[in-house]
């Protein structure tokens, strides 16, 4: 019997509503598989915990989480109790940093039945692999005076190792998909870092002779995202470019309530963390109407990460059937509650 040990952190707001739904889906696919089980431990380290203890998690919190195969997170944030810069910084951002989760992965796909702002939404099915530890988001630089004028200098930071790891991950993903990787670059405008990025991309691509590649300047790339998304399969991008592309992708998908994400540790020393794109959504928390699909799709990414891609595909298939037939929550045009959507997904899974 294969066993995956998962640390669940529902967090705040709708996180506590959607995480248990995704756990039910994981239990269901484990049953379908027959030779696999999940053991879940749930940690209620959230803003209420902060109010009681003055911190977002216990002192040995990271040590405890590090024992698991992965962290499955809902959402953190309740500004009525803790300012976001404290709650998010001390939990999610600390975990990402300390567990060396150097990549952020976000699939974006238009599912028939969801209203997308794209005029011609078919063919939008891609994954953005974002380098998440360096690049443009560096602290190197500063503010100073030049003559009487005030200026700021911001240095980007690109290591061959981090770029190469992100790119290898993208190529490996493409092997399991349509076999195409696009590099998001801007070497016609950014003088040092982006030509280096291009050079490493060129080198890494020689390890994958069967994968097609292209390089797009980020400005042209965002336009093609909207006008001709069929060009894309896997896109590998630096921290800043990836940040912009992933939010654009979530916007095009039609609702933040269905968008999934993963933070991947590449060195195997620590768990990866799976969390949907949406936040704690205080405006709808406690009403039972949050869309659980973002969390359930995120669970599918965790299955893929564990190597259980067939089970991941089953979950995706069930999600698509439920959305296509309008059995959804209000944010994507349906009338069902959070729990009712899960019941529909489970009943689709029961057909296998
Ligand atoms: P973050 O915590 O990342 O800063 P945010 O506060 O910017 O997030 P969210 O909490 O994601 O934003 O909420 C943005 C909007 O999307 C809200 O109106 C919220 O109700 C809606 N929303 C978010 N997640 C869901 C969901 N799962 N189902 C339905 N609506 C959602
Ligand atoms: Mg928020």
From TrEMBL:
Its cofactor is Mg(2+); Mn(2+). It catalyses: (R)-malate + NAD(+) = pyruvate + CO2 + NADH. Belongs to the isocitrate and isopropylmalate dehydrogenases family. Its EC number is 1.1.1.83. It is an enzyme of class 1 (oxidoreductase). It comes from the Bacteria. InterPro entries: ICDH/IPMDH, IsoCit/isopropylmalate_DH_CS, IsoPropMal-DH-like_dom, TTC_DH. It comes from Geomicrobium sediminis. Keywords: Lyase, Manganese, Metal-binding, NAD, Oxidoreductase. GO terms for molecular function: D-malate dehydrogenase (decarboxylating) (NAD+) activity; tartrate decarboxylase activity; tartrate dehydrogenase activity. Coiled coil: none annotated. Residues 5-345 form the Isopropylmalate dehydrogenase-like domain. This is D-malate dehydrogenase (decarboxylating).
């Amino acid at each position: 019997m294969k066993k995956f040990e998962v640390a669940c952190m529902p967090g705040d707001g709708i996180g506590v509503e959607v995480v248990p739904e995704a756990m039910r889906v994981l239990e269901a696919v484990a049953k379908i598989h027959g030779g696999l089980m999940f053991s879940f431990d749930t940690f209620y380290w959230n803003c209420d915990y902060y109010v009681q203890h003055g911190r977002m998690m216990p002192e040995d919190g990271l040590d405890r989480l590090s024992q698991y195969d992965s962290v499955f997170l809902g959402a953190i944030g309740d500004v009525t109790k803790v300012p976001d810069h404290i709650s998010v910084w001390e939990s999610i951002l600390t975990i990402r940093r300390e567990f060396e989760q150097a990549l952020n992965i976000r699939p974006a796909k238009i599912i028939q039945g969801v209203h997308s702002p794209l005029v011609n939404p078919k063919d939008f099915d891609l994954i953005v692999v974002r380098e998440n530890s360096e690049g443009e988001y560096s602290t190197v630089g500063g503010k100073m005076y030049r003559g009487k004028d005030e200026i700021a200098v911001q240095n980007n930071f690109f290591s061959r190792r981090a770029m190469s790891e992100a790119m290898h991950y993208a190529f490996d993903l493409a092997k399991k998909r349509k076999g195409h990787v696009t590099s998001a670059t801007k070497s016609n405008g950014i003088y040092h870092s982006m030509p280096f990025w291009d050079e490493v991309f060129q080198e890494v691509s020689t390890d994958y002779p069967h994968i097609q590649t292209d390089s797009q300047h980020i400005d042209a790339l965002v336009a093609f995202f909207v006008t001709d998304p069929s060009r894309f399969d896997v896109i590998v991008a630096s921290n800043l470019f990836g940040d912009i592309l992933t939010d654009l992708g979530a916007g095009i998908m039609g609702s933040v309530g269905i968008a999934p994400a993963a933070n991947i540790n590449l060195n195997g020393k620590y768990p990866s963390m799976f969390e949907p794109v949406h936040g704690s959504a205080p405006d709808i928390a406690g009403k039972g109407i949050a869309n659980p699909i973002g969390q359930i799709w995120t669970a599918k990414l965790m299955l893929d990460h564990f190597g259980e891609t067939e089970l991941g595909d089953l979950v995706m298939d069930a999600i698509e059937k439920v959305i296509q037939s309008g059995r959804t929550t209000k944010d994507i045009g349906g009338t069902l509650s959070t729990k009712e959507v899960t019941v529909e997904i489970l009943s689709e899974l029961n057909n296998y």
